[in-house]
Amino acid sequence: MSRSDTEAGDFRLWTGLRTLLAWGASKEVDVAMIDTSPERRRGATWKVAEWVFGLGGAITTFMGVFILLGPETEYVGLGGDWSWRIGDVSTAWTVGLILGGLILLAVAYYLVVEGRRRTGVPPTPFTDLAVHLGVFFLVNAFVWVQDFALGGGLDYAFWMTIPWAVGLALHGYIYWLRGREVVPVPVEEGRSSKELLHH
Fold first, then answer.
1. Which string of b and e fits 57-86 if b means at least 16 CB within 10 Å?
2. pLDDT digits 0-9 by tens, 126-141
């Protein structure tokens, strides 16, 4: 075998190895782009957590700062028997509220940033109804507790609960009527499914 034949064979072997490695790398990229494992998804629960930690952190931090800087004669709380004079609130409680609120805000910020890197899960009628139901109970529980805390018994809370309950019932009826259909996610023209999953 001549030297030229040997060099030609080595060249073909090297070219084949490079082609095989490039093909394998492309397959790894494809798998990475369509990775939709449960721990890398962002669904309705993730969004609810963002709101809960964000609002909770904002309210808690605001209360701590208000107690720290506000006049001692002012009151904080839900009202009535569930209110406290700022001058009577200990420093430990004030610092705890501020630090706790900042921690909640940090968690909310992490969820927002990390959520942008995850694959969004298309909403379903069930998740929409579950979120609506959860918000209904949380908000109404707060309003009812505040209404009773003012000391005058039930006064105004039911004016919000009744019409909202009617709307929630209609939402539930629509869910039962249509069944469990997945809401389609619009796909922009010129973008492949891999690109959408990658982003």
1. beebbebbeebeeeeeeeebeeeeeeeeeb
2. 888 888 898 899 899 9
